[in-house]
């Protein structure tokens, strides 16, 4: 029987006894198409998310280095420009408060400020305390009574190293032995914007040897911080931690990303011969 609707249109009154048709389900083909589209979207988004995370880690790392630079500059100001002494192991109380880690700790730069977000977990296994591209160095496995390890329960963890040449004993003025030419004050050093102070590193410091452009520094087997039985000093900072680069805090207080091939273009000592390194793939 027909009915007249509110708008005057004639409609059909369905029979209540007639069963309703069930909604049409997805076919297998349609389901596979949807899953494929989702997979494509995820594959497109993951690299973007990875790049965003890497950029955030690098920015936080640079912030840490600037904080370290500030504390170091305050120390130099209070010590009338005198560089810190190189003290690694001594009486525990002396060693713990010495060198760059003790200096920064005095200005409350410690703990999380010493950790790059790209390598903020201490290495869980013992390789002399050294970290790698993904792990921080771990004082738990280093010498007791040192600047990195006070005792069995008190030790430091970090993702950064220090240019050991920027110490009284470091021989910044020369390129040979540590005592080749003694530089004791920061105002004796020129071009501070080219001199690395703090940087991403697998250990707490490094004192690279220059070699020369004709006989360059020997490259590591990889850029993951997997040292061989006889690691070179410069391998400590040849880590692909921020792409093929590390972050560096310079002696003038600035900080920036430095490609690994250009780490020997920085001025590690007064008479440093600068050249680009040839390095392996990751």
Structure, described:
- The chain has 282 residues and is an alpha+beta fold.
- The chain has one domain (56-265).
- Helix content is 23%, strand content 11%.
- It has three helices and nine strands, in the order ββαααβββββββ.
- It has helices at residues 28-78, 92-96, 99-106, and strands at 2-4, 10-12, 137-138, 157-158, 160-163, 196-200, 205-206, 245-250, 255-259.
- A five-stranded mixed β-sheet has the order 7-5-6-8-9.
- β1 (2-4) and β2 form a beta hairpin.
- The protein is elongated, with a radius of gyration of 29 Å.
- Mean pLDDT is 89; it is low at 175-179.
Summary keywords:
about 280 residues, five-stranded mixed sheet, two-stranded antiparallel ribbon, alpha+beta, single chain, 3 helices
What is the helix tally?
3
**Arithmetic mean pLDDT:** 89
Number of strands: 9
**Helix proportion range:** 10-25%
Low-confidence stretches: 175-179
Gross morphology: elongated
**Largest β-sheet summary:** 5 strands, mixed
Distance between the termini: 80 Å
H and E order: EEHHHEEEEEEE
Short description:
By secondary structure, the chain is an alpha+beta fold. It contains three helices and nine strands, in the order ββαααβββββββ.
Topology overview:
Blueprint: E1 2-4, E2 10-12, H1 28-78, H2 92-96, H3 99-106, E3 137-138, E4 157-158, E5 160-163, E6 196-200, E7 205-206, E8 245-250, E9 255-259
Parallel strand pairs: 5-7
Antiparallel strand pairs: 1-2, 3-4, 5-6, 6-8, 8-9
């Amino acid at each position: 029987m027909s009915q007249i609707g509110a708008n005057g249109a004639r409609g059909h009154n369905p029979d209540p006894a007639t069963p309703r048709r069930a909604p049409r389900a997805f076919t297998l083909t349609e389901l596979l198409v949807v899953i494929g589209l989702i997979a494509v979207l995820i594959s497109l988004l993951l690299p973007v998310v990875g790049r965003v995370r890497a950029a955030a880690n690098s920015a936080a790392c640079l912030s840490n280095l600037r904080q370290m630079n500030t504390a170091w500059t305050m120390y130099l100001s209070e010590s009338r420009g005198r560089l810190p002494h190189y003290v690694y192991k001594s009486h525990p109380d002396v060693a713990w408060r010495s060198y760059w880690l003790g200096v920064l700790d005095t200005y409350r730069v410690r703990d999380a400020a010493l950790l790059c977000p790209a390598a903020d977990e201490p290495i869980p296994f013992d390789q002399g305390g050294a970290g790698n591209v993904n792990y921080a160095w771990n004082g738990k496995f280093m010498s007791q009574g040192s600047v990195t390890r006070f005792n069995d329960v008190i030790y430091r963890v970090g993702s950064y190293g220090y240019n050991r040449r920027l110490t009284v004993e470091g021989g910044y003025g020369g390129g040979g032995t540590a005592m080749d030419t003694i530089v004791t004050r920061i105002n004796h050093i020129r071009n501070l914007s080219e001199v690395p102070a703090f940087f991403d590193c697998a250990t707490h410091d490094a004192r690279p040897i220059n070699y020369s452009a004709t006989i360059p520094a020997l490259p590591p087997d990889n850029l993951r911080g997997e040292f061989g039985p006889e690691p070179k000093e410069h391998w400590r900072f040849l880590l692909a931690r921020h792409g093929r680069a590390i972050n560096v805090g310079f002696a003038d207080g600035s900080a920036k990303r430095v490609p690994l091939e250009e780490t020997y273009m920085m001025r590690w000592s007064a008479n440093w011969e600068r050249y680009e390194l040839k390095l392996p793939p990751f």
